[in-house]
């Protein structure tokens, strides 16, 4: 289609999670509570790490950054979703839609890389404990954290580059509570086969590479833990359980969604909500329940 012969769509209509008014009132209360829990729970972890000098170590510095990413991951769409539960129609501007796509991929991409960095930190700590202080120094830790953010931004820009200039000239209904890139691309008034393949290759390659690195890392770590039996290994096993649980919660919905990227199943909404709302709620709970150091530091913070 000639780029000069179409009028760009100014806004998109989001269908949300449900068309039932009763359910929307229920979701309004539920997600308000969950969003407040996300902000408070993750902020508490960040505050605990900052205020406790003993936790100024690579593992906890990366954990605090994970909490920051979780808050941002929940914030790019959740407040808008909560607002829309009480409003019809659920409208988002073209610019707002592109912003949601950009922010989602920045934070999700950054979290993938950060989870790999956290696995590397645990690998060095458990498999090469004598070299840990040398290998995982503050400089290396800072580099890994910064690289996770930079990778997220670069990944998002690559996704946005072939989306923002597509000709959106008519259809503007998105069957989701946010601007899902896989659904938005299909609204373009042109053949979207190449953009769809590029998006799938970009996100799929990043997701599968991160997942395979995590799988290899934690397999090696678990084999090492099983071979050694000591109090230190028991503590490491407890920490690993928390890490593996968080990785599973984050990647399983992503893998399912990208296994059928351009087919819109009702379960996709549930998985998206799980990734962007329930996982950020659960992460602080998982890390505090499985980590005595975090619980002890929080207790100190409460008593001061």
Automatic annotation (TrEMBL):
Top-level taxon in the UniProt lineage: Eukaryota
Record localization: Cell membrane; Membrane
Principal location listed in the UniProt entry: membrane
Keywords: Cell membrane, G-protein coupled receptor, Membrane, Olfaction, Receptor, Sensory transduction, Transducer, Transmembrane, Transmembrane helix
CDD domains, sorted: 7tmA_OR4-like
Pfam families: 7tm_4
Domain G-protein coupled receptors family 1 profile as annotated: residue spans: 41-287
InterPro entries: GPCR_Rhodpsn, GPCR_Rhodpsn_7TM, Olfact_rcpt, Olfactory_Receptors
Transmembrane region(s): 25-47, 59-78, 98-120, 205-225, 237-258, 270-289
Protein's membrane topology: Multi-pass membrane protein
Task of the protein: Putative odorant or sperm cell receptor.
Family: Belongs to the G-protein coupled receptor 1 family.
Protein name per UniProt: Olfactory receptor
């Amino acid at each position: 289609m000639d780029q000069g012969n179409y009028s760009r769509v100014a806004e998109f209509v989001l269908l949300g999670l449900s068309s039932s008014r009763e359910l929307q009132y229920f979701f309004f209360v539920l997600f308000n509570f969950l969003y407040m829990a996300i902000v408070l729970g993750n902020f508490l972890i960040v505050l605990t790490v900052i205020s406790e000098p003993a936790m100024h170590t690579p593992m906890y510095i990366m954990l605090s950054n994970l909490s920051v990413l979780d808050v941002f991951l929940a914030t790019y769409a959740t407040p808008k979703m909560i607002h829309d539960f009480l409003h019809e129609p659920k409208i988002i501007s073209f610019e707002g839609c592109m912003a949601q796509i950009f922010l989602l991929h920045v934070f999700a991409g950054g979290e993938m890389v950060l989870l790999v960095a956290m696995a590397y930190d645990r690998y060095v700590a458990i498999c090469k404990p004598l070299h840990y202080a040398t290998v995982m120094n503050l400089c290396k830790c800072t580099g890994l954290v910064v690289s996770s953010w930079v990778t997220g931004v670069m990944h998002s820009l690559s996704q946005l580059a072939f989306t923002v200039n597509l000709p959106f000239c008519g259809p503007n209904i998105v069957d989701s509570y946010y601007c899902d890139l896989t659904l938005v691309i299909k609204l373009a008034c042109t053949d979207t086969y190449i953009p769809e393949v590029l998006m799938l290759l970009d996100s799929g390659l990043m997701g599968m590479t991160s997942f395979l690195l995590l799988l290899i890392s934690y397999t090696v770590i678990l084999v090492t833990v099983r071979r050694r039996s000591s109090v230190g290994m028991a503590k490491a096993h407890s920490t690993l359980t928390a890490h593996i649980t968080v990785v599973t919660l984050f990647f399983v919905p992503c893998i399912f969604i990208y296994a059928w990227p351009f087919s819109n199943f009702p379960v996709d909404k549930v998985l998206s909500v799980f990734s962007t709302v329930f996982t950020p709620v659960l992460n602080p709970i998982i890390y505090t329940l499985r980590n005595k150091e975090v619980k002890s530091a929080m207790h100190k913070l409460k008593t001061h």
